[in-house]
Amino acid sequence: MTYCLNPDCPKPRNPDSAKTCRSCGAKLLLKDRYRAIATIGQGGFGRTFLAVDEDKPSKPRCVIKQFLPVAQNPRNLKKALSLFEQEAVRLEELGHHPQIPELLAYFNQEGNQYLIQEFIHGKNLADALAEQGVFWETQVREVLAKLLPVLDFVHSHNVIHRDIKPGNVIITGSQLGMSLPRSGQLDWALLQQALAIESNQGFRNFVSPSYRFNELLGFSLSQPSKDLPTAFYTRCQQLAVQCMRYPTLPIAQRQYIVADASRLLYEIQQLHETRSGTLSIGRLVLVDFGAAKSLKGLAAMQTGTTIGSPEYVAPEQARGKAVFASDLYSLGVTCVHLLTKISPYDLFDPATDTWVWRKYLTAPISEQLSSILDRLLERAIARRYQSAAEVLQDLEGSSIAPIPPSVPIPPLPLQPAKLPQPTNQSALQFPVTASQPLVQPSLQPSFRIARRPRVGMPAIPKVPTLQLEEPEPEVKSRRRSQPNWRCVQTFESPARIYALALSPTEPILASTSGNTIKLWDIEQLKPIRTLTGHLDIIPAIAITPDGKHLLSGSADKTIGIWELSTGRQLSKLALHSDTVLALALSSDGQTLASSSFYDPITLWDLEAGYKRYGLMGHSARIDALAFRPSLGKEKLGEMLASGSSDLTIKLWDVDRGEELRTLEGHTHHISALAFNSDGTTLASASWDGTVKLWNLKSRRHRTLEVESGRINGIAFSLDGKKLAIASDTLQLWTVPSGKKITLAPGHTDPVCAVLFGRTDQMLISAGFDRTIKLWQWE
């Protein structure tokens, strides 16, 4: 077929042999050379055709772009024409790169402008996503590895593409995904969903439209991929055999099989994601330079028109201020879209101004890739990658520590296990019944937590002081005003840090970044190990008073329970329907409080292993929880404080499950709460830039005007006389006088978490600059 290019032709289709249109009489060969044979697309400013170059013996295919705007006002028409001409200029300048279409011709004929470019045979990433489903981590890594060099080339010519998205990246010579072994016929999303349903329904062997749970799991695992290592292959087949006996097993043993299957699938996933090599998906070609902008001369300083696809566009580009890093932001959005198959609009939470893409992952990805994507998606240009080469360096380098291998799962016992029974011992037990499917144990069904006697905190050995620069000799007064608090050690993290927790019995510091937990030895000044198991970011962690166990709250909707000495994950609690935002432990370590976006505050009895009740009263998300410390011999009952985006703080009687009173005064989201050591004063921090100190006896409060941005965290010293504040900077205030103490410069980005060490002479802070700093009084 030959297609007539006359915009007014009523019947543009013609036979291949025709020279002129049989409907309107127009010449069919454009410039007596290019024959349009099919339409590719049409937009508001033109049409695109697949064509043949009749001048060459091989008659190669090419693409005709015809500038044909629909009715527009003169200003828009002029801008559209400028963009069309600009694409031709950009292709002429950049088209000699093998990953950019070559410009073949640009001309005007019969009052219409035409652009002829190389035809790229293949399908774009958007089509591939629709056909094959979500991309694996290895596929996304290859997309990055193959697109970043061409972006680096484009930027080196002072050009910003401004429309990076899946539809503008074409895969050529592709058998997408075929070279990556997918563990036989395992359907990752289906199996993960089945495991979650079985756990949530109390291990009842639920029935799907086609299978019972044990049939689905057993059938899937009975045919593992032969490329798996022998150990994994054998475990799949052994577990498939155990699935046959699943209906006859007691609940506790079913629970163990589900945990074993979850761990096995996770380990196979990790094995595939960390294998070297590429997917051999062929060449990736970047197309559609119609929105590209040159930054030569004065253009670099001028505000331009907002151009690009809204779902993928960077914030500054939406304001007409595109920079090179804007393309990197759009590339990051493209990657999380490929990983989730969810619209980028739904991957961003405007209420909290944060990306929530992790909650939509169907399989876990490595912390290295997660941290790279987080930095690509930084809304602040200064915190984003500044060049494609910088991203490639992180992608190919080994600066981010690898995740250690998972702890082996003990073999399934041959004899049916008995359900754990309540005892008088101080033990954390997690029985699972059909009516209470809240626990997802991964390694063992129960553990103990010892009650710690109330004794004084042991003194922490003095941390060696690092050599700092001497003051300039000519400024004598500077030596006298040198701050007494000095940074003596810096730990670097591969990704943004969300939370800190310190063991009360050992010099062990825990920090969260991405979906992992890092343990640090603050005496030996070295990392200990990395804990893995969550599928999404971890906003909250806490360590039990006896120092034996760590609890973690994640955006994967679970609370992990870990053995601190070994790093083993003991169990998972499924108490919430959304991200776990805050955790708090009672002074005796027996009650855990947790909060989320939409759920009531949940109180979990760690000793008996059951949910006590929920506390309802807030009308918005709850980001802050704090238990009042035990007051020794004075029995006043357990009190819990909660802070919410509804601008209120509520005090709760934990024993009775009743609200005591509501504190009001902040004008923005309440982000952190802390009690002093004797429980008489509650400090509350807010994004309104203030900290309020509430006297719980007199019911009065006073306000510290921090004169900073959002406050992310607060901590009282052990004696209650100092208050540390994490905000745009790290600040220290004396509580009695309300005066600010000078600290030496530290973090280069806002501080996200702060706590005092095991003595008042040490302070620990974490920042968005991916560092943890230890401060010491000297």
Report the biggest beta sheet as strand number plus sense, adding barrel if it closes. 6 strands, antiparallel
Give me the CATH architecture of the largest domain, please: 7 Propeller
Number of strands: 45
Percentage of residues in DSSP E strands: 25-35%
Strand arrangement in the largest pleated sheet = 3-4-5-6-8-7
* Gyration radius, in Å: 31 Å
Report the CATH topology name of the largest domain.
Methylamine Dehydrogenase, Chain H
Mean pLDDT: 78
Number of helices: 12
Walk me through this protein's architecture:
The chain is α+β, with helices and mostly antiparallel strands. It has four domains: 2-118, Phosphorylase Kinase, domain 1, CATH 3.30.200.20; 123-179 and 279-396, Transferase(Phosphotransferase), domain 1 (Orthogonal Bundle); 188-274, no CATH class; 427-446 and 487-777, YVTN repeat-like/Quinoprotein amine dehydrogenase (Methylamine Dehydrogenase, Chain H, 7 Propeller). 20% of the residues lie in helices and 29% in strands. It contains twelve helices and 45 strands. The protein has a six-stranded antiparallel sheet, covered by helices on one side. The protein has a four-stranded antiparallel sheet with strand order 18-45-44-43, with no helix packed on it. Strand 40 and strand 41 (730-734) form a beta hairpin.
Per-chain topology:
Elements: E1 2-3, E2 13-14, E3 29-30, E4 34-42, E5 46-53, E6 61-67, H1 74-94, E7 103-109, E8 112-118, E9 123-124, H2 125-132, H3 137-156, E10 159-160, E11 169-172, H4 188-200, H5 213-221, H6 230-244, H7 251-274, E12 283-286, E13 293-294, H8 315-318, H9 324-340, E14 348-349, E15 354-355, H10 367-376, H11 388-396, E16 427-429, E17 446-448, H12 476-480, E18 485-492, E19 497-502, E20 508-513, E21 516-521, E22 526-532, E23 540-543, E24 549-553, E25 559-563, E26 569-573, E27 580-585, E28 591-596, E29 601-605, E30 610-615, E31 622-627, E32 639-644, E33 648-653, E34 658-664, E35 670-675, E36 681-686, E37 690-695, E38 701-705, E39 713-716, E40 722-726, E41 730-734, E42 740-741, E43 751-756, E44 762-767, E45 771-777
Antiparallel strand pairs: 1-2, 3-4, 4-5, 5-6, 6-8, 7-8, 9-11, 10-13, 11-12, 14-15, 16-17, 18-45, 19-20, 20-21, 21-22, 23-24, 24-25, 25-26, 27-28, 28-29, 29-30, 31-32, 32-33, 33-34, 35-36, 36-37, 37-38, 39-40, 40-41, 41-42, 43-44, 44-45
Helix pairs in contact: 3-9, 3-11, 4-5, 4-7, 5-6, 6-7, 9-10
